[in-house]
Design brief:
The protein is mainly α and 178 residues long. It contains 8 helices and 2 strands; from the N terminus they run αααββααααα. Strands 1-2 form a two-stranded antiparallel ribbon. β1 and β2 form a beta hairpin. The protein is globular.
């Protein structure tokens, strides 16, 4: 339970070398790293509220395929979720996945195993700390090249400050004088 709490709260503490745990346990920890914390927190990841909206959107689309004339409204905490929020959540998720895969490809240049490279990117995007394999709970990121460290550092910024504000920061139109 402590490992789950520390991963979802992004504190990065460990009390056990979960690298020695069964694969299912490690997989659950990686999924929790991707989900991240609750909406509104400074924790990285997709956020639980976005995940719930995406899950409800998927269920709505399945219901719509089965019953094309039905009207299915997505609600979160009893409140209707606007179409703009759904669209923004979907856009965020797609951008997150693109950033994850792009960073994974760039970090893979260092030629480490799949688990090391993908969990290094996932954990930095989620601002959690330890990943698996060579970046596991009793290891560190010193083995990566300077280039990969820059990519992973940018992932940490994208995860902590959110993706869209970081993209806006690098957008030339933001820096033009009005």
């Amino acid at each position: 339970m402590f490992q789950v709490a520390t991963i979802t709260s992004t504190t990065g503490f460990i009390t056990a070398n979960y690298e020695e745990w069964p694969e299912l346990s490690k997989t659950i920890l990686v999924v929790l790293t991707m989900l991240g914390a609750c909406g509104g927190s400074t924790g990285g990841g997709i956020k639980v509220s976005r995940f719930i909206i995406l899950l409800k959107l998927t269920l709505r689309e399945i219901r719509h395929i089965v019953h094309p004339r039905s009207v299915n409204i997505i609600k979160l905490e009893g409140q209707r979720v606007s179409d703009e929020t759904i669209q923004g959540t979907t856009g965020y998720f797609i951008t997150y996945i693109m950033l994850l895969f792009g960073s994974f490809i760039l970090v893979s240049i260092d030629n480490y195993d799949f688990t090391t490279s993908i969990t290094a990117v996932i954990t930095t995007l989620g601002n959690v700390g330890p990943g698996l394999s060579l970046v596991g709970p009793v290891e560190n990121f010193s083995l990566f090249s300077d280039f990969s460290k820059i990519v992973l550092s940018l992932d940490m910024l994208f995860g902590r400050l959110e993706i869209f504000p970081m993209i806006m920061l690098f957008s030339p139109s933001i820096w033009r004088k009005a």
